[in-house]
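User: Second chain of the day. Same drill as before.
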Amino acid sequence: MADISWEEPYCGAGNNCYRIGVDGDGNSYIAVAGQEDHPLTDSRAALSALIRDIKAGKADHLLEG
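Assistant: Same format as last time:
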């Protein structure tokens, strides 16, 4: 596996903790905290787009109960 530099876990309400990481080749990673050996991976550009879209509210419909 790539040499990933992981950020500290981001924990929302309850037990939902995620980690974001990057490697030296420009790839980004998202994993459930404690399961970093099974991350989702994509480019830094894709991670940036995901974060911008979430901040813009494009995923708010996923939070509706």
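Residues 44-55 form the longest helix (12 residues).

User: Great, on to the next one.
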